[in-house]
Amino acid sequence: MYEDDMDMIFDLPGGDNFDEITDLFDAAATEMEPSEVIFAEGFTLHDSMSAFEIGEPRMDSGMVVETDNKPSFDPLTPLLPRELCWMLDRSFACEMAWHGGNTLSQTVYTLLYVHHLPHIDPEMIRYAPHLHSTRFATEIITVVLRSAVVGLLKCCDLAWRELSKGKVQDTEDWQGEKCDISILEGTPSELAVRMLEDACSWLQISPLSPDDKAALIDRILLRKSLLELLRLRLPTDLQKTKPLILMTRNILRRIRSRPEIIAPPPTSLASDAFDPHITRRLHSFIPIRIVELPTQEQTWDTIEALLQGWETLEHLLASHSLFAWNICGVNLATYHRTSPPFIRSLTQSALQDRNLIFGVYPAIWIVEHYFAETLGVSYEALSHTMRVHWTGTGTFSMKETERHIFTIIINLIKSHSYNPPRRRRYLMKSVLEWQVLHDGLRSLTAQLNIDDAHTQTIVDAVVLTARLWQASVAQEIILSGFQQELYTADERPVAYWYAAQVIKISLGALDVMRKVAPQDTHACTELRFQTDYLTGLQAMCIASCVLSYKPDSRPAERMATNFRKRYKWLFTQAFPSNEEELLLPVPDFKQFVPSVTQLLSFSVADCFASAKENLLKAANMDVRAFIAPEQAAERLEYVHRLSNLCEQLGGSKGENLRWDPSAHPWFPVAIIDPCDGDTQN
């Protein structure tokens, strides 16, 4: 075969004008010892091996297959109004996909107009003699589309600034890599808002049809309202939040009430405005992966979730209640409704900024509300009581305890804004902090000389506040394991058994604290609710333990090892020498089988019936008696649903149970035999 024939068969990329250098490398390697490697500066053996890893996406970052080979993108290609509407809708989808944890290069940067902003600047194209489009066709791009892209990038910039504060985890909750692409960091927000307003003004006098005008104006107004929400500084701009949320919801409702804009055909030039392979041309450290953007309905739902997060934060900032913040966080965690990372970061920033609570109160506010909302007794009165009865050495001081309460409460409330696994890990670490606080309060009150029984009860209740909060944290840790599907079938009865023990500790503390809390106070209402609710929850845990227990399922030694690993957060506590002073009992797996054997004599149906009775008593309390009615209403609704589950499980058998966090976060649901009735999913 001749050389020319070879050229006809093998069409090499870049031509075939190559030099043979094999001999050159052989000569260079003659002086090297076996296994010797020469490294380029900053390039290690690990890097070289990673480059040859099978399936490494970055090896193909510059490869363009024939099907992806498209003509050069022309940002000034005229667009139809419906095409522009579709592009604006998909730009929101790109933004919400980024808020969902994808990278900018996979979402927002796929909109090619992001990279062509200078080319659609009206000041630049004014001097383009080659442009033959009509003025109207040009301005719909340079005025309307350009303002929307600027607003999109500015929204990403403002969100990026909040997310980058470190309150949520980069690469875990969100992706902060910018790929050296500007998201208009130096452009004032006011300029972006003014451009969007100018676009609305232009659309109103444009020759478009009324339907096209309304569709485009609503999308520009939606972008403008989101931008104005993102630029708010909470809690300083709290009074502006609610009107903006209402306005944004109205705009979104109008958009969703109209038929969804159908995507243009692949042959349309508008479909070329999005390039999912844009990462191959960007400076990115993340392997290329094409992300499927959310549907338009999912996009609007995500925007609604953002608005719901802003609204919840607005209610919390207006309530100025410690329990409101804690209950709201626990509610969200219990229902497994994790807010978008931006809202979770913004919530933490609004809670505490520069050592001020809600931007107004000093740190002592946390301490005052810790006692007032837990016991119904003011911190000033408690301090006075302890000062009067102080007999210890030195001057009476609560400064150390105040600092500890402030730190542990702030961190606890912030932890509700973590993602579920990180929140659970933090709660495990905080168990020891509550032990330290309890020991500090006990040491302080031990130096008081009290001869009055009522005063002694108050002092005992002060110490028990730490025990109640820690038991609540331990209960969250154990039950959240069901939500995150951490337990095997053999571990479920153990978790229910130990949860029942922890709840018993809470009930003991509540008995003492209810004697102290004045009647007709929010604290008294909360303590009564907790007593009824936890009594019912404990009965449910006992019954669920019996239902899920299967004797001799695994070797006892293996189960004991798993138990110690699962509850290592308790074994690693710095325990006092006297075990009676422990807040939480040291879990002893040897006691599990005897305890469950005793529980097997209980009637499961009676346990669930008792649980339902107590849960209904808690669920039927007047919501107006709670310190945070809006958060309490949601909690009471959940307790009511829990009572309904008791009725379902009361007649079930252990064989027809299914643990599914989407059905219930903590307890199983009974699968009804189709022969007996409708199947419950």
From TrEMBL:
Keywords: Cytoplasm. It comes from Cristinia sonorae. It is found in: Cytoplasm. The keyword Cytoplasm applies. Residues 35-190 form the NAA35-like N-terminal domain. This is Mak10-domain-containing protein. Belongs to the MAK10 family. It holds the Pfam family TPR_NAA35. Residues 341-504 form the NAA35-like TPR repeats domain. It comes from the Eukaryota. One of its GO terms (cellular component) is NatC complex.
